[in-house]
């Protein structure tokens, strides 16, 4: 079985005349290495995409929770909702959610998000 795989690959490689200066075993090794490298790259890309998707989902969830709580307790304008949705700093959103617990008005919560450098 192994010999068939080797023979099949060696035939493919022999047909490839672009690399006439490389021996058949070297060509086979290059092809295998390329294939493995591409597979690893795809796997890493998928993993990174999943991580980014999870992070983005958590951010959107925190934005939605803050909007829901503020809307229920104080009511929000569409501009205020849009502002909260524009905040991409999860730490600022978490601080705003913490502030919500003791807040007597929505301005106290929104101020946490408006602090310089807090929303990006």
Percent in helix: over 70%
Instruction: Please report the total strand number as a whole number.
Output: 0
Mean pLDDT: 84
Report how far the terminal alpha carbons are from each other.
Answer: 58 Å
Write the layout of secondary structure elements.
Layout: H1 2-15, H2 24-73, H3 78-86, H4 90-102, H5 106-114
Helix pairs in contact: 1-2, 2-4, 4-5
Structure commentary:
The chain is mainly alpha-helical and 120 residues long. The chain has one domain. It contains five helices and no strands. It has helices at residues 2-15, 24-73, 78-86, 90-102, 106-114. 9% of the residues are buried. The mean pLDDT is 84.
What's a quick, concise take on this entry?
This is DUF4351 domain-containing protein. This protein has 120 residues and is mostly helical. The protein has helices spanning 2-15, 24-73, 78-86, 90-102, 106-114.
What attributes characterize this protein structure?
single chain, 120 residues, mainly alpha, 5 helices, DUF4351 domain-containing protein
């Amino acid at each position: 079985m192994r010999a068939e795989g080797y023979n099949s690959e060696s035939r493919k490689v022999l047909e490839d005349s672009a690399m006439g200066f490389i021996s058949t075993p070297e060509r086979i090794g290059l092809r295998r290495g390329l294939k493995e490298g591409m597979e690893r790259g795809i796997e890493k890309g998928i993993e990174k995409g999943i991580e980014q998707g999870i992070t983005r989902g958590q951010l959107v969830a925190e934005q939605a929770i803050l909007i829901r709580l503020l809307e229920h307790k104080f009511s929000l304008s569409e501009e205020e909702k849009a502002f909260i949705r524009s905040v991409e700093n999860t730490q600022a959103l978490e601080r705003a959610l913490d502030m919500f617990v003791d807040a007597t008005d929505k301005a106290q919560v929104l101020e946490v998000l408006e602090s310089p450098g807090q929303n990006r």
